[in-house]
Specification:
The chain is an alpha/beta fold and 242 residues long. It has a domain of 168 residues: Rossmann fold (3-Layer(aba) Sandwich). Helices cover 31% and strands 27% of the residues. α3 packs across α4 and α4 packs parallel to α5. It is globular.
């Protein structure tokens, strides 16, 4: 169970980026966070994780989330990641081992097998010795997913993971996320493509600085809620934004 209570993020002491958000999800789910540009979607997850100053709290199984950080994996937007950093694919994936206490310790052969298995899973094993700067956007997103695999987190936060990636990579990533959900994990995804919402998400959070609504996708993803979130200019037919 994950619960957010009165979460707010204020910039410059006066601008409410996220205002008094409350929601609870009881069962493992893939949760889509939707809203217009600048609605506070990324800010919401950063506030939940205390990556930025925020009021309110987030609980995981009735324990403050900040006390169980080892159970959390966070993948920020690709645009915020330095592709020029001199690190190989396998070394990048091995960073996922550090939340389990591997930092500054020699990585064992068994751990490297976990890295290889994760890269096999995302179909990137042939690239393991390449520099991350040599990868396409979709390939790099798969590497980040492999890092999440070795971390074995219970809560996963992904910020716009499908922006600028190919269809094959997106399909591979979603297959892994469905597996995660079936293993009892909860995944939050900041997302913008309304056409794939019904295929991808069990639950939705609709944001426009404040919480518009949340719940099961079939109940939330209806015209009146989308108009309340995006404004009267949006017309939704068959799940596509016009």
């Amino acid at each position: 169970m994950i619960a957010v209570e009165n979460l707010s993020v204020t910039y410059d002491g006066r601008t409410n980026a996220v205002e008094k958000v409350n929601f609870t999800f009881e069962e493992p789910s893939i949760v889509g966070i939707l809203g217009p540009n600048g609605a506070g979607k990324s800010t919401l997850i950063k506030g939940m994780l205390k990556l930025i100053p925020s009021e309110g709290q987030t609980y995981y199984n009735d324990v403050l989330l900040k006390k169980v950080q080892r159970k959390v994996a966070y993948v920020e937007q690709k645009s915020a990641i330095d592709y020029t950093f001199p690190i190989t694919v396998k070394d990048c994936v091995s960073l996922g081992l550090y939340p389990s206490g591997k930092l500054f310790k020699k990585i064992s052969n068994e751990d490297w097998k976990k890295v290889d298995n994760a890269l096999e899973k995302v179909k990137m094993i042939d690239f393991k010795n390449k520099q991350i700067g040599a990868l396409s956007g979709g390939q790099f997103q798969r590497v980040l997913m492999a890092r999440t695999l070795v971390q074995q987190a219970d809560l996963i936060f992904l910020d716009e993971p499908f922006v600028g990636i190919d269809a094959v990579s997106e399909k591979i990533i979603m297959e892994i996320l469905f597996e995660f959900r079936n293993q009892g994990k909860t995944i939050f995804i900041v997302h913008h493509d309304l056409g794939k919402v019904k295929d991808y998400f069990d639950k939705l959070i609709l944001m426009n600085h404040h919480l518009v609504t949340y719940g099961d996708t079939e109940d939330v993803f209806v015209d009146k809620n989308l108009i309340a979130t995006y404004g009267d200019s949006i017309i939704v037919k068959g799940g596509e934004e016009k």
